[in-house]
């Protein structure tokens, strides 16, 4: 049974601000895993990384945390799916911070020609001592049995093995392991489509040692086809309509065609055997045979050209030809066996690959530079020599990482960089191409007319003003000489107070209280409206403004936000209590996972409230019942569901303590323009959320999806970014 990947992260309060270095840690580990010496990120943990189906990064160009909360109700899908969120500091060079440096390679003039930055070993073409092929096989020629994968190697590389848990229904070719150096070689290749079941075979080709085609058959999948992958497989719906052949028929034919000592050859042959649901003991995998350092692999297309001098998988053709690919893999294995490891190492394949990439870089620059928008500025800089970025190691998948967007994020030639003119085009391309790539970066944009700095300044002021109103409550009326100390004490039990002032414009005195956290203001409205405070029966309400008309809707949606699921807010704590004291006091609560004690970010002193996160939502509800009215060290506690337990708590604090002047001169000058465009902007944001929803639903289970609002850096100030992440599970939601 397929293992389910899981992501855990304690992103509460101060821990919810993540640097670009930490984000890079996550993406690198998710893409490469331990087998490439990538370490678990320091701030979160991915369980069963090797079972990840892929990594998809959605970048919302020139958008910030500000956009998410200004259009919180419009981002319906994002807030209901992604449990883990973090504040992201804006970066001057977002592409580099996203997937690391080393994407610009610089040629060096040496006696040997180009020096590869991808492999430190290749400084001289004659120096073969550290070549991965020589380290693995030695320099002497050997028979074919020396190059077949051992059982351990098959297990490590996800080959179907007899007796393994996921292969119980698989069919054996019934070939034995009595192979010799004169055993016959057979080239095998399959084309697959994506179905509700996963990868299913749509075409199978088998060639013999002379390159003669023994089998070239279309196969009808058992499950409903979700993506024919026509651009790569060449298979269309029309082609499969008359096909009657099923997988079981192919399995029977392969068993008849293969002699008992047959050795199958293929490129990443494990994928073909898994799709065929067949077990074969003797295999040569050319993606492993032509060994590279750090577990990377050469593509079949590159090897065919560099070793055999053959052009395969030409772009002019619709899809790959499995017979051509099977024959190429077979001939590569024959070349390796006949020539021996030393001759293969002397080809200096790393050097050839670097030269090919440099040519692609030059070509991409010529194509991308005229775009002249957003992230393109970095293309005008001279290329610099640096260590390779982790995207280079993704050759192990047999395909390039994928980049789709309006802007040219990538200047390296490492990605399939496709520039589109609209978000709709990007989405359509992503639905087709993302399932074929293990690492994808998809960039959407609201368009240049919505990213001007004056609009950011206006949005900032609107969001800050609305948050201030949501944190503010008015209470009264009170008697003329009421006790302010009693009022402060009673309202202080709901949470930390930012300011408390007396309203003198009214016939009877009222007080205006601004809290530091949303939960405190809401708790005051819920528990003290109609209560007797300082000798008066008072009314407690928020300010009545046009912006606050949807306040109750926002509060309800924040409560239902998946980020706040299983999290409760507790107020009325004595400031003398330490985190250790609280851990001990709350230890009797079932399934308590994390306790977060907010602190003043300037003084470091903790507040009279905390957040408790539980493993199960029901346990959080039980805790709410138990805590309300609970007395701790002589103080009565009050609690409710959390509204802003994670990164939002920190952002609210920062806005609360800012001078409120950011972009103010621009804001007042341009308010009319902002009002005119905001209605259109709401529609665009809603459509953007729908695009992401559609893309997310198309992803395979166990796909890590990260949505990034990169943040904004401008002369008028900067805006923090926002990250949302999760691993898609069977229910279509992100697994925690």
Automatic annotation (TrEMBL):
Keyword annotations from UniProtKB, A to Z? Exonuclease, Hydrolase, Nuclease, RNA-binding
One Pfam family, short name please? RRM_1
Hydrolase found in the keyword field: yes
A Gene Ontology cellular component where this protein is annotated is: nucleus
Gene3D superfamilies, alphabetized: 3.30.70.330, Ribonuclease H-like superfamily/Ribonuclease H (3.30.420.10)
Q: Does the keyword Nuclease apply?
A: yes
RRM domain residues = 471-545, 566-644
- Specify the protein name: REXO5 exonuclease
């Amino acid at each position: 049974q397929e293992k389910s990947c899981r992501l855990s992260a304690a992103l509460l309060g101060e821990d919810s601000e993540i640097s670009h270095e930490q984000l890079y840690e996550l993406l690198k580990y998710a893409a490469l895993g331990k087998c490439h010496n990538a370490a678990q990120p320091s701030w979160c943990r991915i369980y069963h990384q090797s079972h990840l189906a892929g990594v998809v990064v959605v970048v919302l160009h020139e958008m910030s945390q500000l956009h998410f909360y200004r259009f919180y109700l419009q981002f319906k899908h994002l807030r209901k799916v992604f449990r883990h969120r973090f504040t992201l500091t804006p970066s001057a060079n977002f592409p580099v911070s996203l997937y690391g440096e080393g994407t610009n390679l610089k040629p060096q003039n040496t006696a040997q020609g180009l020096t590869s930055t991808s492999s430190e070993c290749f400084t001289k073409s004659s120096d073969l001592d550290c070549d991965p092929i020589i380290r693995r096989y030695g320099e002497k020629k050997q028979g074919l049995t020396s190059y077949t994968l051992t059982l351990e190697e098959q297990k490590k590389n996800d080959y179907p093995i007899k007796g393994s848990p996921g292969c119980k229904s698989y069919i054996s070719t019934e070939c034995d392991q009595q192979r010799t150096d004169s055993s016959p070689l057979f080239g095998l290749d399959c084309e697959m489509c994506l179905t509700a079941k996963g990868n299913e075979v749509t075409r199978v080709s088998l060639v013999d040692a002379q390159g003669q085609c023994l089998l070239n058959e279309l196969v009808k999948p058992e499950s409903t086809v979700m993506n024919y992958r026509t651009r790569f497989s060449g298979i269309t719906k029309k082609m499969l309509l008359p096909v009657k052949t099923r997988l079981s028929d192919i399995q029977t034919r392969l068993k008849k065609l293969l002699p008992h000592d047959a050795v199958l050859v293929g490129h990443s042959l494990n994928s073909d055997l898994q799709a065929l649901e067949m077990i074969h003991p003797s295999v040569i995998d050319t993606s492993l045979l032509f060994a590279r350092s750090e577990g990377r692999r050469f593509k079949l297309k590159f090897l065919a050209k560099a070793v055999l001098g053959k052009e395969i998988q030409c772009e002019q053709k619709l899809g790959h030809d499995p017979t051509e690919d099977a024959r190429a893999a077979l001939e590569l294995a024959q070349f390796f066996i006949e020539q021996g490891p030393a001759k293969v190492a002397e080809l200096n394949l790393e050097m050839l690959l670097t030269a090919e990439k440099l040519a692609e870089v030059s070509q991409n620059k010529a194509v991308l530079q005229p775009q002249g928008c957003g992230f393109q500025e970095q293309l005008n800089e001279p290329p610099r020599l640096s260590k390779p970025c982790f995207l280079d190691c993704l050759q192990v998948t047999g395909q390039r990482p994928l980049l789709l967007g309006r802007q040219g994020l990538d200047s390296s030639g490492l990605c399939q960089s496709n520039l589109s003119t609209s978000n709709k085009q990007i989405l359509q391309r992503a639905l087709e191409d993302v399932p074929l790539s293990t690492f994808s970066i998809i960039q959407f944009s609201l368009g240049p007319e919505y990213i001007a700095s004056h609009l950011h300044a206006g949005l900032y002021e609107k969001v800050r003003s609305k948050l201030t109103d949501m944190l503010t409550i008015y209470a009264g009326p009170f008697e003329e000489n009421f006790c302010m100390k009693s009022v402060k004490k009673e309202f202080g039990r709901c949470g930390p107070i930012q300011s408390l002032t007396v309203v003198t414009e009214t016939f009877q005195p009222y007080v205006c209280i601004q809290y530091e956290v949303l939960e405190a203001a809401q708790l005051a409205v819920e528990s003290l409206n109609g209560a007797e405070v300082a000798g008066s029966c008072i009314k407690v309400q928020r300010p009545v403004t046009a912006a606050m008309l949807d306040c109750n809707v926002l509060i309800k949606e924040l409560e239902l936000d998946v980020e706040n699921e299983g999290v409760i807010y507790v107020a009325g704590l004595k400031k003398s209590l330490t985190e250790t004291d609280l851990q001990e006091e709350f230890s009797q609560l079932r399934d308590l996972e994390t306790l977060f004690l907010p602190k003043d970010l300037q003084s470091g002193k903790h507040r009279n409230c905390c957040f408790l996160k539980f493993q199960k939502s029901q346990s959080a509800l039980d805790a709410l019942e138990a805590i309300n009215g609970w007395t701790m060290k002589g103080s009565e506690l009050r609690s409710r569901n959390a509204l802003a337990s994670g990164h939002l708590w920190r952002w609210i604090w920062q806005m609360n303590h800012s001078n409120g002047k950011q972009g103010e001169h621009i804001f007042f000058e341009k308010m009319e323009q902002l009002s005119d465009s905001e209605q259109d902007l709401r529609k665009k944001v809603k459509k953007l959320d729908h695009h992401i929803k559609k893309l997310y639903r198309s992803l395979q289970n166990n796909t890590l999806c990260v949505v990034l609002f990169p943040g904004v850096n401008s002369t008028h100030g900067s805006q923090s970014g926002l990250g949302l992440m999760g691993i898609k599970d069977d229910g279509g939601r992100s697994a925690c």
